[in-house]
Amino acid sequence: MQLFDGTITRYLSDIVDILIVSYIMYQLLVLLRGTRAIQLLKGITVLIAIWLISNIFHLSTLKWLIQNLFSVGVIAVIIIFQPELRRALEQLGRGGFLGRSRQIEDQIAAKVVGEVSKAVSHLSRRHIGALIVLERQTGLSDYIETGIQVEAKLSSELLKNIFLPNTPLHDGAVIVRNGRLMAAGCYLPLSENPFISKELGTRHRAGIGLSEISDAVVVIVSEETGHISLATHGNLERGMNEEEFVTRLYQELKPPEKTTQVFWARKEKEGKVKDE
Q1: Helix residue ranges, H only, the chain
Q2: What's residue 44's pLDDT?
Q3: pLDDT of 116
Q4: pLDDT top residue among 90 and 204
């Protein structure tokens, strides 16, 4: 009986161990996704595959070369991945690596929606063009590096000043991460979709282009018409009024409902209906 209990305990420990490591690996991949580091990670994977092949076919010289590369690779990885490692440690320090509570995420979303909507309303009425990127799960560090580092608390006043005409940062995009304006004057990839309306300019094509390759929410204000648009997942919603914009933006940024909460809420509602 004791042997049986010991076997179950060992299996449970192995399962918990695998789940923890899997979760950490998943979080690391989410952290690296959308950055140059993911390309380096692919390169390391190729080297590991070559090393396995050299073992299987007894290619001693190739195996020796790869092993020596691995011996100095740890230091190289630390140097190359320094920005991502720093970001991971910062998130771990804030509790972000293991996930924030839904309440905190909802507060951040509400704050971002409030500040962005105030700025967008002001810019729209004055026909001032703007391109605002709101990062979600896909990392946008590569695009942040193309602009001017700001790393300031997000506010409508800051957004208004950045997009003032004839200022150095007016034509670029601003990127917002977790309620902070990380950079301004950023360059975004243009969409190559041939079905995009010809009347849309570079600002709209850049917003759509980034939304095609990431899960970011991109807010666009037209300089010619003052129209407010929202780009998500390669789709563009144009000509939104202020109320529609606020509603849609919050829908995109609010944290998802947990399945269990939705399930119990539905059961409760069904119970009330039956009682009635």
Answers
A1: 2-32, 37-56, 60-80, 82-94, 102-125, 141-144, 156-162, 202-213, 242-253, 259-275
A2: 77
A3: 96
A4: 204
Model pTM?
A: 0.65
Asked whether residue 79 falls in the same domain as residue 129, the answer is: no
Distance of alpha carbon 188 from alpha carbon 208, whole angstroms: 9
Per-residue pLDDT tens over the stretch 54-92: 888 888 888 888 888 777 777 776 776 666 666 666 555
- Domain annotation covers residue 268: no
The count of structural domains within the chain is 2
Better-predicted residue by pLDDT, 11 or 135: 135
Q: Give the pLDDT band of residue 8 (cuts 50, 70, 90).
A: confident
- CA dist 173 and 182 (Å) reads 11
Does some domain include residue 265? no
Range of the domain at 67: 4-94
Same domain, 143 and 241: yes
d(CA 238, CA 205): 13
Please tell me the distance from the alpha carbon of residue 270 to that of residue 191, in angstroms, as a whole number: 46
Specify the length of the chain in residues.
276
The CATH number of the domain where 115 resides is what? 3.40.1700.10
Residues 111 and 240 in one domain: yes
DSSP state of 256: P
Do 205 and 231 fall into the same domain? Answer: yes
Rg for the chain (alpha carbons), in Å? 24
